[in-house]
Specification:
alpha/beta; Aspartate Aminotransferase, domain 2; Aspartate Aminotransferase, domain 1; 3 domains; seven-stranded mixed beta sheet; four-stranded antiparallel beta sheet; globular; binds pyridoxal-5'-phosphate
Length: 546
């Protein structure tokens, strides 16, 4: 450019030759090796930042970072080359992201993934298939149907003949891939809603006529969903999106083990079904691994109750579903085979990269309730997977799961599941053995909650009346909030925090620390270090005159 010395960097311009180069397969060895170098940078360049911090620290505050990202203008000419963009991402962005892969990061359901997942994700991007229709995916759609059948079989254990009939049938569907557990729950309840408020004489069905007409046609004034109060908030979103109103997602009380109270469930159903202004129970939802405590509802008994009243039984196994691969622990989910629908997340205990959800149905014809056709694609009787799906265009996550199942085998996954459950149990023992800690919910799967509770306060709690107890618990809530925050800040390890109402302290919200053990590199020694650090933090707090 005029006026610039030749040593200055050449300005990048958006021109046709440069653009076309980004679409052409590299032919020369030099171009190929450049691209390989970038992939190397991605695979190995990201590792270093992972060693510095674990959690969401305030070493550089979010506010400070936000101040650096306030430019809403798109530059007209290119700013950077790929190499520089990758370097920026690795050196400037990654260090301020969260190191979810650390074995000390045990606070959330997001964790390390096997390295081969990055390769598989790359293949999915490189192929760029669109599962909405066979014309953009061909064999990948039938691979998807196969892997759906594999997971369906894991849940429902139907006969060889059943899978032979349905695995590649173009008329029936065993389930579908979605973007996440939230959409899977929504899909299951969408199907259940349409099955319940289906077409009949003088009424063309809720999908077509809407809820007002449906309630009139069926003589009901509302539809409700029943789930324990440990239910995931995605169910409330589903209530909103499906027009039911999320006030009609009724939270049923839990027992001392955080499982739905069956007596209360039956009572609630009876009350709802009688009376002049009838309500319809659209579905009862059992949870196989609650997000907060990892508890599993009594699925078999719930299925029995639903069978009696002819209610759709959905199991939210977003978290716990893959436990079915463990011969040792699959019994924890027994009864799941009676569910009408089941949600499982791929990016949780299938260790897939973000994000992938799935929903399965016992009846291979039930998804006909949400069938949609378009003239240019998705014709009746085609393999087009977009016909029965909340999504339109969608990536080929099924290829990742199919490949991962081959690489791991169900035994490989079982090792991960068993490690999580057994490490969580050891951790629970350790917490119970330490005098300044209190186990709040023991692990059924691999999630547990506890709190720091100095021994002297434990003794005070035991000997106090209701009013004193409330005050002591408030102090403890404060202590635990502080410990969690200070530990996160220190940046070495991360546990999360939630509040629970627990039977011992009715009417009170108890702040608890929550750990999710899914990283196979998280050992009991690491968990002990985390407790040690919490003890040290408390000592500092006392010294600082907390
Ligand atoms: C994680 C989770 C969900 C929601 O899944 P997303 O993938 O985060 O949308 C739903 N239910 C339960 C029990 C979960 O643990």
């Amino acid at each position: 450019m005029a006026g610039k010395s030749p040593t200055e960097k050449k300005e990048l311009v958006a021109d046709w030759p440069a653009l076309t180069r980004t679409f052409i397969q590299p032919e020369s060895d030099a171009a190929k090796s450049t691209l390989i170098k970038y992939m190397e940078q991605i695979l190995f360049g990201l590792q270093d930042f992972l060693k510095t911090h674990v959690g969401f620290t305030e070493a550089i505050s979010l506010k400070h970072l936000a101040d650096r990202f306030t430019n809403s203008l798109i530059s007209q000419n290119p700013d950077k080359k790929l190499a520089d963009v990758i370097t920026d991402l690795i050196e400037d962005i990654a260090p301020h992201a969260v190191n979810v892969a650390s074995p000390y990061f045990v606070g959330h359901m997001t964790s390390a993934i096997p390295f081969f997942m990055v390769h598989l994700k790359t293949i999915v991007a490189a192929l760029n298939q669109n599962l909405v229709k066979i014309e953009t995916s061909k064999v990948v759609s039938v691979v998807e149907k196969q892997v759906l059948a594999k997971i369906h079989r894991l849940i429902y254990q139907q006969s060889d003949a059943f899978y032979k009939e349905h695995i590649q049938s173009t008329y029936t569907t065993l389930g579908c891939f979605t973007e996440n557990g939230t959409l899977s729950n929504l899909t299951a309840l969408w199907v259940a809603r349409n099955a319940l408020l289906s077409p009949k004489t003088g009424f063309e069905g809720v999908e077509k006529e809407g809820l007002k007409a449906a309630y009139d046609a069926y003589g009901i004034h509302r539809c409700v969903l029943l789930v324990s109060k440990r239910g995931h908030y995605s169910l409330n979103k589903a209530g909103g999106l499906l027009g039911l109103g999320n006030r009609n997602i009724i939270a049923v009380d839990v027992d001392a083990n955080n499982r739905i109270d069956l007596v209360k469930l039956e009572e609630t159903i009876r009350t709802l079904l009688k009376g002049p202004r009838k309500a319809a129970v659209l579905a009862v939802i059992g949870i196989a691994g609650t997000t907060e405590t990892g508890s599993v509802d009594p699925l078999r008994e719930m299925a029995g109750i639903c069978g009696e009243h002819n209610i759709h039984f959905h199991v939210d196994a977003a978290w716990g579903g893959p436990t079915l691969m463990s011969e040792k622990y699959r019994h924890l989910l027994s009864g799941i085979e009676h569910a009408d629908s089941v949600t499982i997340d791929g990016h949780k205990q299938f260790y897939m990269p973000m994000s992938s959800g799935m929903v399965y149905f016992k009846d291979p014809a039930i998804m006909d309730n949400i069938i949609y056709h378009a003239n240019y694609v998705n014709r009746p009787g085609s393999v087009d997977l977009g016909i029965k799906s909340p999504s339109g265009s969608r990536e080929a996550n099924s290829l990742i799961l199919d490949s991962a199942l081959k690489i791991m085998g169900s035994r490989g996954y079982a090792l991960l599941i068993d490690h999580g459950i057994e490490t969580a149990r050891k951790f629970a023992d350790e917490i119970e053995n330490r005098k300044d800690f209190q186990l709040i919910t023991s692990p059924e799967l691999n999630i547990l909650t506890y709190r720091f509770c100095p021994f002297d306060l434990q003794e005070k709690l035991a000997g106090s009346d209701d009013r004193q107890r409330v005050r002591i618990n408030e102090t403890l809530n404060d202590i635990n909030r502080q410990i969690q925050r200070r530990q996160r800040e220190a940046g070495k390890s991360f546990v999360s925090r939630t509040t629970l109402d627990i039977k011992d302290f009715p009417g009170q919200h108890i702040v608890v620390l929550r750990t999710v053990i899914m990283n196979p590199m998280t050992t009991i020694d690491i968990l002990c270090e985390i407790l040690n650090e919490q003890e040290e933090i408390y000592k500092t707090m006392i010294r600082d005159g907390f």
